[in-house]
Amino acid sequence: MRILKISATYSPFLEFGGPPVKVRALAEGLVRLGHAVTVLTTDWGLPARGGGERSPYGFRRMHHGVESIYLRPRLRYRTTAWTPALPAFLRDGLRDFDVVHIYGLYDLLGPTVAKACRAARLPYVLEPIGMFVPLVRNLWLKRVYHALLGNKMIRGAHAVIATSQQEAGELLAGGIAPGQVVLRRNGVEIPAEFPPRGGLRRKLGIPPAAQVVLFLGRLSTKKSPDLLLHAFARLAPGPPDNRAHLVFAGPDDENWMKRLTSEARLLNISVCVHFAGPLYDEEKWAAYRDADVFVLPSRNENFGNTAAEAAAAGTPVVVTDVCGVAELLAPGAGLVVPHEERAMAVAIQTVLQDAALREKMLAAGAALAARLGWEEPSREMERLYARVAGEISG
């Protein structure tokens, strides 16, 4: 099959969080299954990253068998951009594909491509990647977006993909037809070899004997870093050379670092709160390995790949019960708690104090890692694409 994937962000721009990693993993997985895959995305500065070759639409790159087309943006707001070359690409090349997969909402690529697909009777599937329920930032603008663009894109999709039972329930509650919703989990790209322990501690000056509580992800309202900070402040302090340290790792989306720094000072815990900035690839896995417990305190996550990655690295995990990944972690690799400060503090303290529990969680995480690769999701997408393409051709 000839597959076109649409994503506002894509590799190598990993600072945009989970979507670029997910799209890359599925695209490369489908190439390994023998399909031709093109990713259409926005150019967020490819020449500065080692670049590709120029194309009529911006830049083109081939990486691990995947063709990616980076459209030149003209106007930008966060991850939304106006790309004047998009109509030309659709006019020149859309009919070359058998199926289209659109990732995300609230950008201009998806609705424009979806409209062109409907006109060309080309099937497309939509993956909201956790954006279907608007929780934070510009709720009024998001309602306007749906009224003008989003609802048509959703209704015209041959399938809408949910990555957890929680997200599937949100889609159904939002009026998506049951026959339209398809459940497909995310996967985890596990390195062939984990980096040695100690790198993150040395970088941040954390004593080797101290316990580390890790948050890794975008510092954003949706992920509730303030909830974690206040839960951490409730922990028993311990002796100075062995007290717990809290590490926030990830890009600062909404100037949260300034706010968290101020609150840490008011809570009198500044000395043991650290900001590591964005961590990718080996640095990311080194952070998981150095942590004694990983916490995902989000108020809503369609999946929560970082928690699955931490468990795969052998790190005990605490997640809120509004994270889709909770259903996979609950059997033993993680503790699932309400989105509430005291419950989170109790769970973190329990993990830090109970060495036997940490060993059990480590073993459960290793078992989870063995079945969390991208091979199965890639094959599920292959079957789904074949089905929807057959519905049109038939």
Short summary:
The protein is of the alpha/beta class and 394 residues long. It is built from 14 helices and 17 strands. The strands form 3 sheets. Strands 3-4-5-2-1-8-9-10-11 form a 9-stranded mixed sheet, sandwiched between helices. The protein has a 6-stranded parallel sheet with strand order 14-13-12-15-16-17, sandwiched between helices. It has a two-stranded antiparallel ribbon with strand order 6-7.
Features:
40% helix; globular; Rossmann fold; 6-stranded parallel beta sheet; 394 residues; alpha/beta; 9-stranded mixed beta sheet; 14 helices
Unreliable stretches (pLDDT < 50, length at least 5) are none
Oligomer: single chain
Strand content: 15-25%
CATH homolog superfamily of the largest domain = Glycogen Phosphorylase B
